[in-house]
Amino acid sequence: MKIVSNIARAAAAAAGAIPRSQTLAGLDLLATAVVMVDGDGRIAFANAAAENMLESSLKALSRQRLCDLFANPAELDHVIGQARAHKFSDLRQELMLERVGREPLFVHAIASALDDPMDAVLLELRETVQQMKLDREERLLDQSQVNKELIRNLAHEIKNPLGGIRGAAQLLEMELPPLHLQQLREYTQVIIKEADRLQTLVDRLLAPHRRPHIVGDVNIHEVLERVRSLMLAEFPAGLAIVRDYDASLPEFRGDKEQLIQTVLNIAHNAAQALAERIDAGDAQIVFKTRVARQVTLAKVRYNLALDLHIIDNGPGIPPQIRDRIFYPLVSGREGGSGLGLTLAQTFVHQHMGVIECESRPGYTDFRILLPLP
Asked: Domain 4-127 has what CATH class?
């Protein structure tokens, strides 16, 4: 999408101090990050998508040199210089922009010189990793829907014969001869107990589809504080749960109990993975909240979204199951049911949000994005 012609006029107007609300409001609706730099390479304008990408407001970015924001400015500076020299009508290049203490930005950059006295250059920055994330999110949503239908149908098919098996075992027990009752009753009890165990598993698989979605006003920090108190009661020593909250986050409509269960499932999994660090006394889980701008969730664009991170310093998710952790009955630990993350994903999807995970040894980050009003 080439948007230079319209953006160039608006950006040139910005240099003349025309109020952003009057002249540049339309640029905040773009998913593409748009930045205008003056002849000295200083930021004269950045739209909302650029503020989100650069994780800073226009007020904070204003008059900073764009290239100074990155640890490897040479390529970006070259792109801007080539565009300013009018060597190309617009210059396009794939760049990796390194940032101190943060993940690098992988962007497709389009630089165009503006015909104005400022010798300004307009940059469009499209995050290529973000596009891959959107594609992956779409695949996960499709897979989740298929899994949901498969689980529901399979659970119902299992549930009916289970009742018959349990009932037959009980009748058989009643007909056992007194002479061998105690010896043979052991076998019928095995059948009954295993049938009950499978029934419990089936009920847990069906639970998200049975429970009504109770909507009310939700303060995400109340949810996190509830989970924090539950976790510290279960793990009173060796585990630190760190708060990193954005107090400006507004309330939103949602099911508070489902969100508590979602965060609790993730945090509990993290604590179990942190067993060795808890014993050593240096285990840590971080609850981090931020606002994300101009976010696409389930193919719908939202101006604002809750950006919730649950981060632990555990060993990380085993590579062989990393792409399947939200599948039912997939567990990274012995004895795990493999349902906690499946339920978490279901509850997040019911709130029109997405959940994703980044993991490596020493760092696992579950990220939940939910639309905000």
From this structure: alpha beta
